[in-house]
Amino acid sequence: MTNELNQTLQQRRQKAQELLDTGVPLYANDFKPTHRIADVNARGNTINAETPQNSGPTYTIAGRILALRKFGKAAFLKIQDESAKLQIYVKRDTVGEAPFELFKRFDIGDIVGFTGHLFRTNTNELSLLARDIRLVTKSLRPLPEKFHGLTDVETRYRQRYVDLIVNPEVRDTFRKRVEIIRLLRDFLVNRGFLEVETPMMHAIAGGATARPFKTHHNALDMDLYLRIAPELYLKRLLVGGFEKVFEINRNFRNEGLSTRHNPEFTMVEFYQAYATYNDLMDLTEEMISWIAAEVTGSTIITFQGKNVDLTPPWKRYTLDEALMTVAGIPADIVTDPARIRQMAIDKGIKLDAKAGPGKAKAELFELLVEEQLVDPTFVTAYPTEISPLARRNEQNPEVTDRFELFITGREIANSFSELNDPLDQRQRLEKQIAERGDDDEIFPELDEDFLRALEYGMPPAAGEGIGIDRLTMLLTDSPSIRDVILFPHLRPER
Question: CA angle, 36 as apex, 488 and 155 as ends, to 5°?
């Protein structure tokens, strides 16, 4: 902490003590605004330069002081509430000498209440002439003068409360996030999906390929895993007779952090009986393009300087087609298990001795293709080897009826026709456990209850997961996942 900041903190505490000494509460709990600033601004349309300063209706508002200019017997302030900003004009002759003396101890950052009349200044700025002033909350720390730029990025994430105060575009991003989630929910509910809740602590880590977080339940004396995906519980509900279900869920994966990854993130997963992955491709196109139009006003958006056209229909490739068409790998290599595996090794990809050509293709796709898929693209026909929960394709059992959706080089969604054959499912999970590496904590044991549920019979179905954080990044032009998570995980402060 710098000496300058120390001095400012001492000055603010001194002012706070002086206010207390005069009987002014620093944290009042009885002030109630009658209007939001946005509503006051809207009513200001009827105010013109000729409107007398002390005429018209009175408004009582509250907001945080963002700017303060004092001129001896008067002052101009800029205050902000959740909805908007407004200029306040404080005159000693209007509010009275004693209140004005108290007002002189107010600071930028204080939350203050005002009652007064609207008027326009000589520069035609709508303002409120204060008649009464009330300190609502005293701020003991100064707001930063410059809170923008790369040098302050970590501070912005760590002190999101300050980021929200001084950067209105950040508040707008999180309003849009809330709107995106509401629209996702509305879209699915309007199509007959039932919103459900499933456990966030699992006895077995399953439903996705990821390293879990582990915790311990004292009363039961058992280890539990924080949810890496709700998939297996949602499928149990299909067995139970619910034919369309979804959950907006928090997932936890004990893996690396990046501009696209946070250990705690939000997804929507939905499952529909008697549907295939092709049906969900159509639904996904419709849903995301509609949400984009609602949030941004268009299906053509800009992300980090690139135009992205979300207008359906979207491009569709098989994984092999993407490797050949986008990465330019010759067909005779893509279709040759030994050569495609060797190409992956030559590209520096580390493959376990047990990894087959499907793993090699997936790694090459991530390395050579993924970043180039700017406009929305469905990639289908993923190898069975890397899709333990997806249904095999009936014409080619080496691949599954699965798609991943990529936009701006990022995976946005993952979907497949669900595997509902309990014997096939058991064999695949057993194979995955047998092949996992020494450091792999994925599927430490079979989920026997899930397999038992499948033995009762799950209807044919398709399921999908969409990353809400990444969708919000796309629709708010945010380069990092930390820009769309209110309180992203960071290392502890020193």
Answer: 25
